[in-house]
Amino acid sequence: MTATQDFIPFNRPFIIGKELEYIANAVAMGQLSANGAFTQRCQQYFSERYKIKNLLTTSCTDALELAALLLDIQQGDEIIAPSFSYISTVNPFVLRGAKIIFADSSLLHPNIDADKIEDLITPQTKAIVCVHYAGMACDMEKLLAISVKHGIPIIEDAAHAIESKWKGGVQLGTIGQLGAFSFHETKNIIAGEGGLLCVNDEYFFKRAEVLVEKGTSRRSFFRGEVNKYEWIDVGSSFLPSELTAAYLFAQLEEAEKIQKNRIDTWNLYHELLEPVEKTGSIKRPFIPEYAMSNGHIYYIVCASPDERVKLTQALAAEGIQAVFHYQSLHKSPYYAPRYHGSDLLNADRYSDCLLRLPVFYGITQQQVRRVCSTVSRYFGLPE
Questions:
Q1: DSSP E strand boundaries for the chain
Q2: Which of 113, 182, 291, 336 could anchor a disulfide with 60, C-beta 3.0 to 4.6 Å?
Q3: What is the mean pLDDT of residues 326-340?
Q4: Is the pLDDT at 4 greater than 60, yes or no?
């Protein structure tokens, strides 16, 4: 890294619009606790844009914990989920006593291999969790067919998938019975932390309104449906503060601008790294015809773990922060003693060889070109 070069981080949280103004407004309105004006604005935004019932949560993890409660997951139930994912995909179900049946990724992309799922189904299977990795849709046609055939609900972990579509028009996270989004600072639309639960079932939604209010009928009370609110179910404190919702709403107002910037960045990476892929040194993201990129992650898959380490070091030497991603959950220190399934070779390959390049709102084309030049130079190509 030369003295004239700036450090390029993997991620950089950002302010794009009225975030600070709306936080001040929330304070001035006198309600910082959950379910105030900005929470309602955020939920209305998603209701109108995605045409689905939804509840704002403190995180995507909490949204998935709500999903586990709504499905009444019990000790001994089985949940099919990808091994190549974050702990939050499965932890909510483990907390309820479920056994995780890990599935492999596809050979072509990190998403769950839909062709391998039916072999994992048993009478104890209570749900299938799919993760739309990097905002790219899983094979929802096959997953929905399995869901209907076996009567097993689909939960979409759409943490990466804000504004990403299936078959060009259906928003990810709104297709299965339940869907969970993230607004963590590394995501496209951010609030520091924060999440959203989308619900495709009226019964589930009515119960979710109770669960998010610590198991009480508080919302029914404030709507005048009951004369007092009482403890009527299990629940917890799943709702974000108005400060989080205020920041988030300001970002939602600028969603189209944010998405254009990230997709432009993704497309530039994809174009500039094509010559490197043609040498056989790396694999670029594969996008099936039913999917799209929402610009959340740009990754490359190296030929070996050792190659990934050396490339990461070469990028770091030029002031560029590139990072690997998930480690196979079935091999994790916690779950390995409990795992008795087959080898998951594709999940392990992505765990060992996938490298994420810097993508964030505001990264410049010059910076992207510098990253790609460094990758090209490492593999012996002209810059």
A1: 53-57, 78-82, 99-103, 125-131, 154-157, 165-166, 170-171, 178-182, 195-199, 282-283, 298-302, 354-357
A2: 182
A3: 96
A4: no
